[in-house]
Amino acid sequence: MLIEPRFRGFICTTAHPTGCAESVRRQIETVKARGPIPGPKRVLVLGASTGYGLASRITAAFGCGAATIGVSFERPSDGNRTATAGWYQTAAFEREACVAGLGAWSLNGDAFSDGIKRQALDLVRDQLGQVDLVVYSLASPRRQHPRTGELLNSVLKPIGRPYASKTVDFHTGVVTDVAIEPATDEEIRQTVAVMGGEDWSFWIDALLAEGLLAPGATTVAYSYIGPAVTHPVYREGTIGRAKDDLEATAQTLTQRLSPVGGRAFVSVNKALVTQASSAIPVVPLYVSLLYKIMKARGTHEGCIEQAVRLFSEHLYGGSLSLDEKGRIRVDDLELDPDVQAEVAAVWPDVDTGSIESLTDIAGYRTEFFRLFGFGFDGVDYAADVDPEVDIPSLATDPGAGD
Ligand code: NAI
Fold it and tell me: Ligand 1 centroid to 383 CA: how many Å?
């Protein structure tokens, strides 16, 4: 079939298998160009199919030469509908890993469930023996609690008082005002339960209990801080409470990892266009402005450059540095005071008439469609393409774990 982008708001309901494979290939090239990283050889990535998790898996495999197990929650094609981008990217990753002689296994299903954890533990034991690194990169709007069965939803709301700002429809470039009412205590509780640290600790406890963490094993999860303009809806809002919880979990996990000499880290990463971040009010407008400023300064990075820097400098490069709260900071270039001063100076002037010239909204759009495999030079989008693509390690049971 011919596959074209079909989108509403921040959701694109189609994905292009060849374009998704091109996205993976380009990330691999970026990692290879950086040269080998003396890092882990057996890696488990939770949330491995898109965004920061995929970039981490690619860096571990093609930078460190690691065998990887990736867990994600994606939908295969049913012949009429395309698969999700994360499905195609996982398939492409496995094919590239196979060519490179790197072990790669994937599980598709709900990482919050005990069932997928069981399957992952068995896979680690059978294929890798133990793991040296666990990357926790899940981003989800909901979680079914594995012990209580409660269905929990995360919301993106301020806490304590309403928040008003401007936001953009990045497809049309129309800038409008947005007002968001504060979250209830119940909404805060549920958001922390979805995006906080509890599930991360369930994973690490389960791996520890079965002796599947190698001596000196490391685990890392991803957080965000961002600029003052988004603080009310992000860092001081419901998702920020979840990130506080995630960061506190790193401290308790480091204590629990002491018997194996391991450590748990949170890495604060840069704002980037991903499926998760495009859903957050105000953030696409900020990211468009940030991209313009950072590209002009030559300091712009994507997920893959961030992951390479995290691995090669902090986790495995011998120059680990932590902030006053014990966090790794690869958002340093974003939060450079000069960059943020420029953001603050331009922000008041951005409106529908000026957005194309003052921000990199065009770059935002390009990146958004590339998340789904569209808009890559060298991909023939007029060619007939089969939407049904196997993930090699799942080929005998494409819905494994659902
Ligand atoms: P993403 O939407 O690109 O990736 C989410 C991943 O989680 C996908 O692999 C998806 O399949 C998987 N997933 C979702 N629900 C699942 C479930 N129930 N079971 C198994 N897998 C599931 O998200 P992104 O942006 O890469 O976010 C990853 C982490 O990085 C999050 O903690 C996010 O807060 C953090 N982060 C993101 C930033 C950004 O600007 N995108 C900036 C800094 C941190």
Answer: 31
